[in-house]
Design goal:
Chain lengths: 300, 267
């Protein structure tokens, strides 16, 4: 709901012009409490995370950790868990691609074809997400189960072998991730498609462009900010997720999130922290490269 | 092109869009259906027999209703704090001019762009470094929830504020309203739907969070943590009752909001 409202508002008007803004210290005062909260509980913890990642792994929560600048934590986790790390990136990347394939037509349909059903369709996009993430994912267990109709149908169509199954496979994990993060793709895409003046597309058609050329030369470039935003909002949480891998996968589909959680549970805080820092750094680097390539730096 | 061909061309995208929407609702149908299921045994999770037992005895699974109550308490408190702090920040970012505004903008956006597992582990690292390892619980969950709700509140309220016509406020000032009156009579009522949306979003984010909570909860069990535990042991059908109620309540609120805004638009 709120996302719908926000996106509609943003689509309808631009930012406040500079001259309308008030000067003076009131701005700082309004900002202060929230900014302090973010500083103390978001920025400072990132430093604690980095420093935890450099503790001597010989310590424990009970005996305390020695700060020894133990960089070897990083080499240890990279040697031990590079497989899960790469798998996270691959699964998240695949899920993001499928989200684009599914989400683009949906966002396009809402923006240009839905007419008076637009608001209802927007509500429908987020409505499934009113139930809990975990409960939704557990429903996928049932849907993808060996006796379920999806497996039966795929077997009937010989897409799946007679003893094939879906649950506890990479396919199930990617399906779950795709499902759970699809609205994060659809809403930003819708927001930028909505801003496109339909007359631009008519002009394309008037100038004898085929629908495909019109799409490629007009619609797609103009929807780039939404596509980039949606990709980031899908890929980033997907890469850190471990719920889908745990509930829909098996031991061979563990992602980096599973490992971090398991290391924390086992009390190996320095290794867990080192893996978290690595994940954050890799994601930041990937985002910067991607945004630069997509030429939408002003988004950030 | 034939007429049929053109009709298909016109409606193809809409058709695909509706199919995608259908796909999004399939798991919800499962949740609602399973809330009426009488499981054959404790470990079987497939539809067996229709019953109203789960709806009549929602609190049967030990600890489930306690976890729902805890999640509601945390959700309400986190919503209150995050909405208050975030609304102030949004006003500062949209309506005021000061040094470092663009830095502050990026800064409020960052938590939304970090994976939950990283946010959760860094908070845990902070609490452990602060000697709170033994005191993880209600307080630490609340701190974490306010944090991740805050950015969403800022973004939502900011969008609403940016969409506000500044001429309305100028008109009020022209009619001799002072700043205070202009704010309470014009600005605030117009921004209020955005604040309300932000609060609803905060509550649903808080109620649903698992990854960050799981790292910082100590011995407390929120509803998502209860579901997680149940998923390892065997899922009581009452979980789907809670899921269905959540879905219906949220849907009801959103539809009421839509109807309300339509009525306002017509008036």
């Amino acid at each position: 709901m709120s996302q719908v409202e926000a996106i509609k508002a943003e689509a309808e008007t631009g930012p406040t012009p500079e001259a309308e803004r008030k000067r003076g210290w009131v701005g700082y005062l309004l900002l202060l409490p929230g900014a302090l909260w973010l500083a103390v509980f978001f920025v400072v913890p990132l430093f604690s995370l980095v420093s935890t990642s450099l503790y001597d792994p010989a310590g424990s929560l009970e005996t305390g950790y020695q700060m020894t600048g133990y960089v070897a934590n990083y080499t240890t986790v990279l040697e031990d868990y590079s497989e899960q790390f790469i798998r996270s990136m691959v699964y998240a990347g695949l899920a993001t691609l499928i989200c684009i394939v599914l989400g683009y037509p949906l966002a396009y349909a809402i923006a240009f074809k839905a007419g008076r059903w637009k608001n209802l369709m927007l509500v429908a996009v987020i409505a499934p997400f009113f139930t809990s993430f975990l409960i939704r994912t557990i429903s996928w267990q049932l849907l993808l189960a060996d006796q379920g109709w999806i497996v039966e149908t795929l077997k009937f169509l010989h897409i799946l072998g007679p003893d094939g199954h879906l649950l506890a496979t990479p396919v199930a994990v990617v399906t779950g991730i795709t499902y759970n993060f699809l609205p994060f793709m659809v809403l930003p895409l819708y927001a930028s498609l909505e801003k496109i003046d339909p007359r631009l597309m008519e002009a394309g058609a008037d100038l004898y462009a085929s629908p495909f050329t019109t799409f490629r030369k007009i619609t797609l470039p103009l929807s780039m900010p939404g596509l980039v935003g949606g990709t980031l909002l899908t890929f980033i949480p997907a890469a850190g997720d471990y719920i889908n891998a745990q509930l829909l996968g098996n031991t061979q589909t563990q992602m980096v999130g599973n490992v971090i959680q398991k290391l924390f549970d086992g009390g190996s805080y320095p290794e867990a922290a080192a893996l978290s820092v690595t994940l954050m750094v890799v994601i930041v680097v990937m985002v910067l490269l991607y945004v630069r390539r997509a030429g939408t730096e002003d988004l950030l | 092109m034939t007429r049929v061909g053109r009709w298909i061309g016109e409606h193809l995208v809409l058709g695909i869009g509706l199919l995608v929407l259908l796909y999004m609702f399939v798991p919800i149908a499962i949740v609602i259906g399973m809330s009426f299921n009488e499981p054959a045994s404790r470990n079987s999770y497939s539809f067996n027999q229709f019953t109203l037992h789960n709806w009549a005895n929602p609190c049967e699974p030990i600890g489930m209703c306690d976890s729902v109550v805890l999640s509601i308490q945390i959700g309400l408190l986190a919503t209150l704090f995050a909405t208050a702090l975030g609304t102030l920040m949004a006003f500062a970012l949209v309506r005021h001019r000061f040094r470092g505004r663009s830095v502050a903008n990026v800064f409020t956006f960052l938590p939304m762009a970090s994976p939950e597992i990283v946010m959760g582990s860094s908070l845990l690292a902070l609490f452990v470094a602060g000697g709170l390892a033994g005191q993880l619980g209600f307080g630490t969950i609340l701190v974490a929830h306010i944090l991740f709700c805050l950015s969403f509140v800022v973004v939502t309220v900011k969008a609403r504020l940016a969409g506000l016509d500044p001429r309305l406020e100028q008109a009020a000032m022209d009619l001799y309203a002072n700043e205070w009156q202009t704010f309470w009579r014009v600005t605030f009522p117009l921004v209020f739907p955005g604040i309300l949306s932000a609060a609803l979003l905060s509550f649903s984010l808080s109620f649903d969070d698992f990854i960050i909570t799981n790292l910082n909860a100590g011995q407390e069990v929120t509803f998502p943590m209860f579901v997680w535990g149940a998923a390892q042991r065997g899922i009581p059908p009452q979980i789907n009752v809670v899921g269905t109620v959540m879905f219906l309540v949220a849907l009801g609120l959103v539809l009421a909001g839509e109807v309300g805004s339509r009525r306002r638009a017509r008036a």
